[in-house]
Amino acid sequence: MLSKQQIAQRIAREVKNGQYINLGIGIPTLVANYIPEDLEIVLQSENGLLGIGPFPTEEEIDPDLINAGKQTITMVKGSAIFNSAESFAMIRGGHVHLTILGAMEVSENGDIANWKIPGKMVKGMGGAMDLVASAENIIVAMQHCSKSGDSKLLPECSLPITGIRCVKKIVTDLAVLEIHPDGGFILKERAPGVSVEEIQQKTAGKLIIEGEIPEMTF
Amino acid sequence: MINKTVKDAREAVKDIPSGAFLMMGGFGLCGIPENSIAALLERDIKDLTIVSNNAGVDDFGIGLLLKKRMVKKMISSYVGENAEFERQLLSGELEVDLIPQGTLAERVRAGGAGIPAFFTPAGVGTEVAKGKETREFDGKVYLMERWLRADFSLVKAWKGDTAGNLVFKGTARNFNPMMAAAGKITIAEVEELVPAGELDPNQIHTPGIYVQRIFQGENYEKRIEQRTTRS
């Protein structure tokens, strides 16, 4: 089973040179720690920044400089600041190449649910609906099962959805999976020590297994 | 040049009536109109509708207005940081319209720019789409969203001049420029108010045409929600 850090580390391997990337809150934020230094990429923050840098030192803290998770941040050289309408213009306009975000559920046709639990959580969708409706490549980082042990990879989402047919790839603590264009989770890689049988058992949606499934290495 | 200066926050917000439709800039607590909110708290008004990306925290920002029961309805994208907000929402005391952040930004932008409606992919196939017109363009389905315009917009900038021109700093810019344009009366508070002519016209983010009242703010707290550092 992968730790949260290892999920982030595995997703970082999907990053390509020259990409503009939006990282969601939680595990996706950790991805920044594992992007190889020889890649030139730019992190977008939807509250209006291209070029998120590391967290500040105590002396560098600036209350006027935060990320979308409201954390204090710094800017890298060559950063640009803009307003929220401009920020979502670059998101909807397809200029952000890769979006990495968390999810409560993903369905086998690529629907994602991550904003609302009726009667329990009413925090709002923030920028997630705009991001998933527009990004050309969406990778989900999440645990394979909920805390109560239910599969989060389903035939159909049971929670209110954030976007339809948008997820391309999912990295969980157990596996790397891709969404088949005709529906289904294609099993691509297994976490170290996790069997295909275990993944099958914990995937409620249609799982597509073709040939030998390699084990991830770290 | 037209002088937009008013004495202080109290003077700037004195005619905002009960039931007014307001916009307030800020993302989280970053770039919120602290002084105008404080002055509103002293007013005996209620039933406000507030468009703001977030709803403050329990003891700061819009959270203070909620606590005093001055708000009838919030139009926001994310409201996770406020227990009083959640309580009022679940008990039915407060109406809330949750809308995607990019849609919120564009609805406000459209309001200021005189565009009554537009089509966006955000929310297609979700409960956000309920009751809204959809249309297909070049093989993809989009949702029609309407503009938002306010009776009063309360914004906060870093620097401003007496003509109402504004310059923002860092990510405190966020929704402030669009809200300035979408308000019938826009009230801008600034950390540093200078005479017209002292700001470089090439560096203005919000032209003074959008600002009706400007004042020198004071005692900025600039509270940080998630103080995060590296070792």
Automatic annotation (TrEMBL), chain A:
One Gene Ontology molecular-function label: CoA-transferase activity
UniProt xrefs under Pfam families: CoA_trans
Keyword set, alphabetical order: Transferase
InterPro entries reported for this sequence: 3-oxoacid_CoA-transf_B, CoA_trans_fam_I, CoA_transf_AS, NagB/RpiA_transferase-like
Superkingdom in the source lineage: Bacteria
Protease listed as a keyword: no
Keyword Transcription: no
Protein family: Belongs to the 3-oxoacid CoA-transferase subunit B family.
Protein name stated in the entry: CoA transferase subunit B
From TrEMBL, chain B:
A Pfam family that the UniProt record links to this protein: CoA_trans
Keywords of this entry: Transferase
Gene Ontology MF terms in the entry: CoA-transferase activity
Keyword ATP-binding: no
Source superkingdom: Bacteria
UniProt-listed Gene3D superfamilies: Glutaconate Coenzyme A-transferase
Matching NCBIfam families: pcaI_scoA_fam (TIGR02429)
The protein's name: CoA transferase subunit A
